């Protein structure tokens, strides 16, 4: 199995795990109400919020493809349009911060979901979507390979 296939399988397993969490919440007849702005990407489950976060699942760093920039510029992201109109150097990696979007932006997550990880990812990147429970997260980066962590993932030490 090559690196790309391994990363794709890892991304799929993480997606399935998070989907099972959401299905369990729905099966337990928890009231889920979607908001208008992020209706595809967040929902409130009583006091819990389920959000989507974009992260890089490959060595090399988070970057978007030219095709993803075109998709975003068609939907009104001015900075993406600016990068497409400029003659920027070949090989430069454009990340979400450069175009003014956060990693949990509904538009960025929709772009990645609609285009798929292969087409939305830039050079040496494989962008995936992680579903998290809650509204707090941190992205740990080790050599370009990122991990999305929430307060639930952290094992806290207690001082006695």
Short description:
By secondary structure, the chain is of the alpha+beta class. It contains five helices and six strands, in the order αβββααααβββ.
Notes on the protein architecture:
- The structure is a single chain.
- This protein has helices spanning 3-27, 66-74, 78-85, 106-115, 117-120; strands at residues 32-34, 42-45, 48-56, 127-133, 138-142, 145-149.
- The protein is an alpha+beta fold.
- It has one domain (3-153).
- It has a four-stranded antiparallel sheet. A two-stranded antiparallel ribbon has the order 5-6.
- The longest helix has 25 residues, at 3-27.
- It is globular, with a radius of gyration of 17 Å.
Percent range for β-strand residues: 15-25%
Major β-sheet annotation: 4 strands, antiparallel
Total of helices: 5
Low-confidence stretches: 26-45
Q: What spatial order of strands do you see in the largest sheet? A: 1-2-3-4
Please bin the fraction of helical residues: 25-40%
Inertia-based shape: globular
Radius of gyration: 17 Å
Number of domains: 1
H-E string: HEEEHHHHEEE
N-to-C terminal Cα separation, in Å? 47 Å
The total of beta strands comes to: 6
Structural class: alpha+beta
User: Which whole number gives the mean pLDDT?
Assistant: 78
